[in-house]
């Protein structure tokens, strides 16, 4: 299939994985096309040249101005949950503190309570609905965490629901076990005892049932300590689990653990200081910033500009969850953050595509290049700069997953 012509194609190729990017470094193919076969890209380039080189390809003719990009990769979400937390949000915007909200029955534990009583089918349906909404907004790969179960049956139920959901959405879902979201209120032992229980009882079953090979842990004064997290991540790695960390959200410390244990990514980073920024920049750990959580909590953004200037690999993810980031609009969040943090379009699109891929250990997507998946999205405009200019209101009009057109 030859798809095109597109007014502009941003293939996101040939750019470094780490550090600052100028828009001058962003390759743009004018009047371009893509040849896709068996879900993969066969060629990207000048439309007329492709027509000559591939005369037998079926044509998917684009008859309006469009800008083509790789599908976005959202490497951090919690879209498997039941219920919502609008009561928390109302209290927060009225000025109530985290502790006051928790005392009134809000916070992560409220979502745990609601998710524990939901059945697998309901959780899978909720996940599919959110994944499909994301997909129609150009997000073709979505990481999804457990972490609202926090006991054996409920964590297993969440990860089974994510697995079922992945069979009912064209989007790729990448599951992660976040049993280390917080020590459950109904667990009598210490944090170390709880993490040891996750390691010895839960992770082997998740592995045996192929439900996930990734773990996440929330390192924070209200969740798990750096010391306990370090032992947990080392032990999980020994069992074959790749890791990501909720790090430096309110207090710094988590990203140091992420780097020391070789985690794929350190996510949040709102409270990262120059020390953590340096550590991340000098490591292979992807620095994932979550503007949706800053917007939802009314807090400062993570230091994305500084991270890039120091040389980090910066990804932007939605953190879509019922508590701190209920909006779930990745493009809007990235666009709004870019104005505050002074990120170039090249840096933003990189953070949503090929720089997010290594956080999920994916090498088959994130750029438009021969051999990679034909995961693509097109915006109804003739200038890529319009996409961030409209701050998330300009949505893609065509989306392809594995070369197939996705329809609502
Ligand atoms: O990434 N920081 C911890 N966990 C989530 C919030 C989850 C919740 O409030 O339900 C986050 O922001
Ligand atoms: Fe999160």
UniProtKB/TrEMBL annotation:
Q: One GO molecular-function annotation for this sequence?
A: imidazolonepropionase activity
Which biological process terms from the Gene Ontology are attached to this UniProt entry?
L-histidine catabolic process to glutamate and formamide
Domain Amidohydrolase-related: residue ranges: 67-405
Residues annotated as domain Aminodeoxyfutalosine deaminase/Imidazolonepropionase-like composite: 32-56
Record's Gene Ontology CC terms?
cytoplasm
Q: PANTHER family, per this entry?
A: IMIDAZOLONEPROPIONASE, IMIDAZOLONEPROPIONASE-RELATED
Descriptive protein name = Imidazolonepropionase
Q: Which organism is it from?
A: Chitinophaga jiangningensis
């Amino acid at each position: 299939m030859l798809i095109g012509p597109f007014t502009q194609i941003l293939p996101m190729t040939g750019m470094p994985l780490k550090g600052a990017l100028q828009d001058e470094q962003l390759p743009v193919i004018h009047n371009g096309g893509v040849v896709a076969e068996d879900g993969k890209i066969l060629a990207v380039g000048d439309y007329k040249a492709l027509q000559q080189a591939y005369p037998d390809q079926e044509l998917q003719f684009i008859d309006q101005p469009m800008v083509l990009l790789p599908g976005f990769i959202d490497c951090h979400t919690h879209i498997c949950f039941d219920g919502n937390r609008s009561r928390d949000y109302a209290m927060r915007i009225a000025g109530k503190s985290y502790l006051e909200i928790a005392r009134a029955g809000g916070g992560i534990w409220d979502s745990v309570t609601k998710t524990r009583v939901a059945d697998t089918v309901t959780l899978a349906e909720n996940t599919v609905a959110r994944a499909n909404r994301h997909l129609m907004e150009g997000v073709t790969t979505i990481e999804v965490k457990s972490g609202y179960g926090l006991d054996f049956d409920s964590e297993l139920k969440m990860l089974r629901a994510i697995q079922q959901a992945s069979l009912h959405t064209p989007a790729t879902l990448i599951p992660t076990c976040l049993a280390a979201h917080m020590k459950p209120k109904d667990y009598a032992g210490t944090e170390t005892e709880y993490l040891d229980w996750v390691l010895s009882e839960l992770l082997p079953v998740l592995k045996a049932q192929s439900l996930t090979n990734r773990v996440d842990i929330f390192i924070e004064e209200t969740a798990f300590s750096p010391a306990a997290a370090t032992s947990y991540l080392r032990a999980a790695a020994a069992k074959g689990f790749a890791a990501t960390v909720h790090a430096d959200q309110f207090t710094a410390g988590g990203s140091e653990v992420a780097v020391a244990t070789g985690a794929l990514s350190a996510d949040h980073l709102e409270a990262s200081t120059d020390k953590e920024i340096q550590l991340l920049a000098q490591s292979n750990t992807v620095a994932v910033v979550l503007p949706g959580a800053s917007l939802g909590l009314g807090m400062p953004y993570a230091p994305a500009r500084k991270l890039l200037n120091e040389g980090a690999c910066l990804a932007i993810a939605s953190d879509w969850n019922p508590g701190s980031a209920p909006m779930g609009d990745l493009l809007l969040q990235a666009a709004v953050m870019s104005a505050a943090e002074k990120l170039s379009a090249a840096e933003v699109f990189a953070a949503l595509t090929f720089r997010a891929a290594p956080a999920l250990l994916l090498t088959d997507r994130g750029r438009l290049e021969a051999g990679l998946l034909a995961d693509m999205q097109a915006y109804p405009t003739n200038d890529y700069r319009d996409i961030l200019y409209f701050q998330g209101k300009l949505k893609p009009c065509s989306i392809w997953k594995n070369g197939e057109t996705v329809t609502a």
